[in-house]
């Protein structure tokens, strides 16, 4: 049987989430922070860009037609990261993740042979995280999407240990997709908030998982890093050098940082065939999955073509195109 082409980085927009939080204390401040981080010029482009893509993120028929044009058989659909709302209090947070899990599952249920989904957990309230993950799994979702940090908490925070343990036990997928970079106004021009901010956040978050020993304590975690893991895979030698040279850098994890790349998964969305080849080299061809960031403008309209441009061997090409994701998501 031919392995399906599987895109693990695709988004759904959930207007009901935004209706839920509209007017609540904290939303205005979160939007002001987002505006400062992105800058006026980026916001002027973002609004029309997102509006033009609403049908592709809400209408299953439009989504499937786009997938057909791309040659994609299956999408792993995650909520737009704008739905994280990590500013919200306990009661609102629970409403957000319950609604996100339910709505994402309903969207995927319209085409169950072609769409699988991920839910949300409230990283700002770690005490709810396991319940939220179980709720997502109970709706038939394959796991959850998380950002690179929550206010005042990095992914190395011990408060997340129950989440990692439950995700490992259940086999749930954790899709690491940043939203917002803490470099703030330094990146507020030329869309640096995304082009520099996203790969920076990916690298920082993955470094927290590696150096803190999370991956030692939970070797069975299924973590997919968006955007090819950002800067970390191509600059992992610096991490290895620090771990080998400095007692403080090497105190938290048992092995060379580069060795942990082969315990993680990465999407292929790096926008450069040479970088994609390097990602495959350092992480292993069995750890890279096709990703498009559907349907945003910073994604790829032809993810299979972008993968083909890397000129991988046939076996590696087909592994990344869908074989790895089929095994990970049990779609084989």
From TrEMBL:
Top-level lineage group: Bacteria
Ranges for domain Amidohydrolase-related: 6-330
InterPro entries, per database record: ACMSD, Amidohydro-rel
Stored PANTHER family: 2-AMINO-3-CARBOXYLMUCONATE-6-SEMIALDEHYDE DECARBOXYLASE (PTHR21240), ISO-OROTATE DECARBOXYLASE (EUROFUNG) (PTHR21240:SF28)
Protein name (Swiss-Prot/TrEMBL): Amidohydrolase family protein
Organism this protein belongs to: Streptomyces poriferorum
């Amino acid at each position: 049987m031919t392995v399906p082409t599987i895109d693990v980085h695709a988004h759904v927009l959930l207007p009901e989430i935004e209706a839920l939080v509209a007017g609540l204390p904290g939303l205005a401040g979160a939007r002001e922070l987002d505006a400062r981080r992105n800058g006026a010029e980026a916001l002027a482009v973002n609004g029309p860009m997102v509006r033009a893509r609403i049908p592709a993120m809400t209408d299953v028929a439009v989504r499937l037609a786009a997938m057909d044009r791309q040659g994609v058989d299956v999408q792993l659909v995650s909520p737009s990261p704008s739905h994280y709302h990590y500013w919200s209090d306990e009661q609102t947070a629970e409403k957000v993740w319950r609604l996100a899990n339910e709505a994402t599952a309903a969207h995927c249920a319209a085409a169950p042979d072609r769409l699988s989904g991920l839910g949300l957990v409230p990283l700002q309230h770690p005490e709810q995280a396991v319940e939220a993950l179980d709720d997502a799994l109970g709706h038939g979702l394959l796991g959850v999407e998380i950002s690179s940090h929550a206010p005042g908490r990095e992914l190395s925070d011990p408060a997340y240990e129950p989440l990692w343990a439950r995700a490992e036990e259940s086999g749930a997928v954790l899709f690491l997709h940043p939203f917002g970079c803490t470099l703030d106004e330094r990146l507020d021009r030329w869309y640096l908030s995304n082009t520099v901010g996203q790969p920076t956040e990916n690298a920082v978050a993955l470094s927290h998982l590696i150096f803190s020993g999370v991956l030692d304590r939970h070797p069975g975690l299924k973590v997919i890093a968006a955007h090819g893991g950002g800067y970390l895979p191509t600059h992992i030698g610096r991490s290895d050098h620090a771990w080998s040279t400095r007692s403080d850098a090497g105190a938290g994890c048992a092995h060379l940082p580069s060795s942990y790349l082969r315990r993680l998964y990465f999407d292929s969305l790096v926008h450069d065939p040479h970088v994609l080849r390097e990602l495959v080299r350092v992480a292993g061809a069995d750890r890279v999955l096709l990703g498009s960031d559907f349907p945003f403008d910073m994604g790829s309209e032809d993810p299979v073509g972008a993968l083909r441009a890397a000129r991988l061997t046939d076996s590696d090409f087909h592994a990344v195109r869908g074989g790895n994701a089929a095994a990970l998501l049990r779609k084989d």
